[in-house]
Amino acid sequence: MTWYEIKSHIEKGDISIFNRTPDVAEKYHKHKENVTRKGSNLMEFMVKYKLHWDLNELQKLSEKYPTDKDKIDAILSDKSLYTLIVNNFPYNFDHNVYHLCLWSKIYIPLYIDVEKDDSRDYYSKDPACQLKIQKFWQMNLAELISECGGSKNVDYCWFINYPNLQSIRQISHIHILIYIDKHNVPHADELITKLLLKDGGDTSVVVA
Fold first, then answer.
1. Of the four, 9, 32, 163, 164, which is 20 to 30 A from 183 by CA?
2. Rounded to the nearest 10 degrees, how much is the dihedral formed by the CA atoms of 117, 57, 47, 173?
3. 166/122 Cα distance (integer angstroms)
4. Which residue spans adopt a coiled-coil conformation according to this UniProt entry (predicted)?
5. pLDDT computed for residue 167 by the predictor
6. CA–CA–CA angle 153, 158, 164 (5° rounding)
7. Cβ-based neighbour number of residue 127 at 10 Å
8. pLDDT, tens digit, for every residue of 12-69?
9. What pTM was estimated for this model as a whole?
């Protein structure tokens, strides 16, 4: 899928069209089967072995920020509240697109009325939450864009899957897609790792 098509689908809210190549999809399903075979589930596996978070802490944060407004005010406010890692089973996108996921310890209430119906194919977005996320990426991707020679070589967009598309619904995660013209920026891999994945980034991750 081209970068233009990716951005167009996200702008229209048509994110259910995103899928993996058959090869990546097979690896994805095998991983899920392996996790299940070991007596775990994707949420527990992600929290304990990939994010290295404490489930008790997640519960306390949920109680600390009970309302959507509380959550919107708190999300992304401190580096200890989220982790950014590579999606090792990305969707079938242009080879210049880096597919990362930001996992939040606090639920991100982007979509309106999810609690009333979590099976729809489209949801309206909370403007305050959307703005908070947009500002976060503008600030945190500024250095990368500069190092790549400016916006002529870099573009980005983000989305959160609708509830019925998520395989790990208990933990909010934002898909961040970064397009870098690798012909003009041959060291793009190094810049992504250095500037965004400062701890190296655990790439053994399954998300939807």
1. 9
2. 40
3. 13
4. none
5. 85
6. 150
7. 9
8. 999 999 999 999 999 999 999 999 998 889 999 999 989 999 999 999 999 999 999 9
9. 0.91
| CA 19 to mean position of chain CA atoms | 15
Q: Residue 197: phi, psi to the nearest 5?
A: -110, 65
Residue with tokens 């992304």: 76
Side chain identity at residue 82, one-letter code: Y
Question: Which pLDDT belongs to residue 123?
Answer: 87
d(CA 96, CA 40): 34
* Length of the chain in terms of residues written: 208
Rounded distance between C-alpha atoms, residue 42 and residue 165, angstroms: 14
Number of Cβ within 10 Å of residue 105's Cβ equals 22
Per-residue pLDDT band at 207 (split at 50, 70, 90): very low
φ, ψ (nearest 5 deg) of residue 175 = -85, 120
Q: In what order do the strands lie in the sheet with 173-180?
A: 82-86, 97-104, 173-180, 154-159
